[in-house]
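User: Assemble these into one structure.

Assistant: Restating your components, then the assembled model:
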Amino acid sequence: LGDIGEFGWIARLARRTRSASDPGVLCGIGDDAAAIRINPPILITTDVLAEGVHFRREWGTSRQLGRRAFAVNASDIAAMGGRPAYALIDLRAPATFPVRELEAIYSGFRDAADRQRVVLIGGNTSSARRLSFGVTLLGRAPHGCLTRDRCRAGDDLYVTGTIGLAALGLAALRAGRRRTVAIRRFLEPPLRVEIACALARTGLVGGMIDVSDGLVQDLGHLCEASGVGAVIDATRGPVPAPRGRLRRRELEHALAGGEDYELLFSALPALSRRIGSIARRYRCNVSRIGRIVRTPRNVRVVDADGRPLSLTARGHDHFRKRR
Amino acid sequence: LGDIGEFGWIARLARRTRSASDPGVLCGIGDDAAAIRINPPILITTDVLAEGVHFRREWGTSRQLGRRAFAVNASDIAAMGGRPAYALIDLRAPATFPVRELEAIYSGFRDAADRQRVVLIGGNTSSARRLSFGVTLLGRAPHGCLTRDRCRAGDDLYVTGTIGLAALGLAALRAGRRRTVAIRRFLEPPLRVEIACALARTGLVGGMIDVSDGLVQDLGHLCEASGVGAVIDATRGPVPAPRGRLRRRELEHALAGGEDYELLFSALPALSRRIGSIARRYRCNVSRIGRIVRTPRNVRVVDADGRPLSLTARGHDHFRKRR
């Protein structure tokens, strides 16, 4: 990167970016600030993948890293029932970082962004000891915002896709293993934008959140914001396990593991058939895993007989020690 | 920070932030994404202060750091002729980082932001080896965008405030000195939002950029975007020097130093009286330092007799070696 310099890199980026052709972009890469036309309400979120904190470079390809950086941010926009539209990239890298690697990261990002018609409009580039790739996404929410405070007692609780596989993948990577289904699931999180927008369009979905820090912890955030509690039926969980009974450890892993980037949401029981047809239409498994109850802030996990399971594992917190 | 954890910090932040009371904020800190109502065109910019790259903690107070993080971003919005409205903070810090220090940084940020009626609506918090404080600002541009490509041959060139003092301050800090006027100028960059909006309102200003990487380099960016060249009269520069003749080294320092966060812009010669009255109204020195010429991409610096000075120093680039 030292060979072409900061401005060489920005010029290269501007040439390869189609921001100039988007009618909403008044001013793209290369000015003091970007300028866009976008109708309110506007969603905005930001998240970073930092080497040594969120990933190690040997875990996957540079393209996977770029794609993942897009996906984890798009997941936050989706969890509001919205659709991402514009992106900024905060790149920090050592001067010795190979331009070819950097282009592969951007290429992975761009492939995923292009598919969602998201346009890169700017960002920031600075030197750092280790690579980090931060993304800010702006999005539209034409069907309103599925904020966390909309869960009501009596709602059913749903989750898309599978829970726990990504955490197994992360554990496998940390243990030095390569190329398992679980690892691929961690490196390539799902993109749930289309189904999130379809759910928002019904106007009948309650609160929604994306599962990134562990199902139980993220459900706790939903409950806290809505002033309600929840009961999860552990046997109904969309947990990828050998057929038959789940072992306790696998279950804990699934419920506390995080990195799933699936959608967790509540909806009126009357909506269940409609949710089933949306799930089929978008070819995405949607499981009913429990319900919202009145008791504030209390998330209980029960087994098939309704007996409570007490879990010891907790979700992810950046500053607390892991168990 | 490890004692209260990521979510403890976010909850504390949400309580102290007045985003809930702003009518444009549909959803502030604590959901998957923020949601706002803001009329287009929307300006957006992002910039970071990273320990060891942009600052050392012993250089100034935590409050100054927070204020500076706001100012350098607001400068980019101002340079588009706009006004910042909403902010996101990307905080990265070690788990051992003292919460008290962090609150001082946020307090410095908030003081500056409040004065501009800028509301904190979200961001991201993650662990890192060293402190970094990234800011994304969204702003309004009701009078249009003063992009870099609007300079025309024949325009006069103006710069606000003083050039070169901040770079002297940075050099003094690096040399281990403390508490000089220049150091304070580096630690507390000016906020030129009001005068930038007043200039934009005239509808007669050409291209504008903020001077952050060195006057000559930033002028080069203006010229390149506009397909023009420029001549600067070195003796007219708003360079803080001992009375009388400028020494060559001081001049180079001023022209290549950067960190000024002043506005550099072009305007029709007919606008000079109006610019004078705007300068008086906002109590901000505005100096005419040269003019735009036809020769593309060529920035020349001449002395009082019109003789060209050849400068060896270059502006800042994050990945190239410094001289």
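Chain B touches chain A through 70 residues (CB under 8 Å).
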